[in-house]
Amino acid sequence: MRVRLELRWHQRARHTIPQIFQEVVRRQPEHLALVDAGSGMCWTFAQLDAYSNAVANLFCQLGYTPGDVVAIFLEGRPEFVGLWLGLAKAGMEAVLLNVNLRREPLVFCLGVSGAKALVFGRELAAVVAEVSGQLGKSLVKFCSGDLGPEGVLPDTQLLDPLLKEASTAPLAQPPGKGMDDRLLYIYTSGTTGLPKAAIVVHSSPCTPCPCRYYRIAAFVHHSYSMQAADVLYDCLPLYHSAGNIIGVGQCLIYGLTVVLRKKFSASRFWDDCDKYNCTVVQYIGEICRYLLKQPVSEAEGRHRVRLAVGNGLRPAIWEEFTERFGVRQVGEFYGATECNCSIANMDGKVGSCGFNSRILPNVYPIRLVKVNEDTMELLRDAQGLCIPCQAGEPGLLVGQINQQDPLRRFDGYISESATSRKITHSVFRKGDSAYLSGDVLVMDELGYMYFRDRSGDTFRWRGENVSTTEVEGVLSRLLGQTDVAVYGVAVPGVEGKAGMAAIADPHGQLSPNALYQELQKVLAPYARPIFLRLLPQVDTTGTFKIQKTRLQHEGFDPRQTSDRLFFLDLKQGHYLPLDQGVYTRICSGAFSL
């Protein structure tokens, strides 16, 4: 309700994100805006404003016009924020590229965005040099920072000298763009394939409000009662919505100081929070588990952090995290960059990712609807409408789409086919449209929702549904918070999918059979992994989500990997090394599964 009221006020005032930021600058020009924890560099709001004005003036002078797309490819630091904010001031659209992209995926992301220019950091010069020949001669390249001994890449201009010569005054003629124009492209993390570029816009077609960026930042701000005096610690990637909108958005919209670290460091986390007097921290994916793996330090008892906000905190370690580190509130929320059905756990209900009223459900029209959990196909009643779930029933989270409502619109992806796959019709009533989240949740009798599984993160074995997240949590806890990925693999001639666990074992010290003895105590027989894969490290995305696509594709075939593989022989009651002979016997049915 508070977000809606703020949006209506900004609609009447015809504000955009840069204009809202200008008001913050006017109020507190010398207040700290951004701090780079790595270098110690501090930017006031006046300095951030001046840098972004220089960016806006420079690109206008170079002939770029409103609507042109510029890609940003550099690690998280204040310049990153100044670059996309300056482009927005000039009416241009920034594409935020994942700094972990290399070769074909990097070329792909640049290609689908339609970028006319690329700004890359000096730390990524070698990466750009690798693909320079595939980027096309029309793409203009700028390097932020000194290239050092390598020298300038062909057809590359140094950005910093150009910015020093540019005016730091506001644009003489701000762009006359419509308020439905695009602000940013933020790529999804690509846990299941090539990234998709989600669109972040200023507003809906009929209302000139800074919708999606503002909505996401304001939703978190008010859900957890953040104040202008708070200092937020943001060690998440700025190419992702969690770091750039939920984190940096608190600075640009509400005037908070945001402390940036370009890469999460478990060993430096609490030292940074203590040094900069942080009161709010962000987490995502497995960050909380990584912090629990660290030895006890003095800094973890000295900090002033009252709130940890993010998503992906496993229920199994929730209370351990809050008790050890003395964090009074966990602000777990659910929401993707592009979704219209975000929810928040505002009162610390352990394990819950959000809440929606069961008494007044139409205030925020989202629903859990029944699906076939094997195929994720929507189940419908005799009238062709989706079937709402009752309390305790798992269902797919959907959000009703209303393109005229800034809180309920869905702007989709650059790819029209990717957008259409996320929309279904006749959900709440005949002919309506709804966004398909792809996530299965469960709501209790009070309206609290609990994350169940990502589509594809359950598999059926021995007539039972196995939750990969549950098994991952158990294994990780038994192994001292080690990285674990659990997934189902098909076995020829066998119904369902057998569980397989990929476990990080960089020093080759894990004993499969000692692990099995412990698993028998805590996991049902059908949930115990049939196959183990011990590898140096488990791949994660830049936002600390486990990547399983390659692991699932390679399965338990020893020809696909040099990692150590094991097979659970149920008759002998222990794991056997899985070589080509054992693999052949499994595929021929010689082993009873």
TrEMBL record:
GO terms for cellular component: endoplasmic reticulum membrane; mitochondrial inner membrane; plasma membrane
Annotated organism of origin: Physeter macrocephalus (Sperm whale)
Keywords assigned by UniProt, alphabetized: Fatty acid metabolism, Ligase, Lipid metabolism, Lipid transport, Membrane, Nucleotide-binding, Transmembrane, Transmembrane helix, Transport
EC number: 6.2.1.15, 6.2.1.3
EC category: ligase
Matches recorded under PROSITE patterns: AMP_BINDING
Entry's family note: Belongs to the ATP-dependent AMP-binding enzyme family.
Catalytic activity line of the entry: (9Z,12Z)-octadecadienoate(out) = (9Z,12Z)-octadecadienoate(in); hexadecanoate(out) = hexadecanoate(in); (9Z)-octadecenoate(out) = (9Z)-octadecenoate(in); (5Z,8Z,11Z,14Z)-eicosatetraenoate + ATP + CoA = (5Z,8Z,11Z,14Z)-eicosatetraenoyl-CoA + AMP + diphosphate
Chain ranges of the AMP-dependent synthetase/ligase domain: 21-379
Domain (AMP-binding enzyme C-terminal) ranges: 470-545
Molecular functions per Gene Ontology: arachidonate-CoA ligase activity; long-chain fatty acid transmembrane transporter activity; nucleotide binding; oleoyl-CoA ligase activity
Protein name according to UniProt: Arachidonate--CoA ligase
Annotated localization: Endomembrane system
Membrane-spanning parts: none
Location (main, coarse): membrane
Membrane listed as a keyword: yes
Biological process terms in GO annotation: long-chain fatty acid import into cell; medium-chain fatty acid transport
The keyword Transmembrane helix appears for this protein: yes
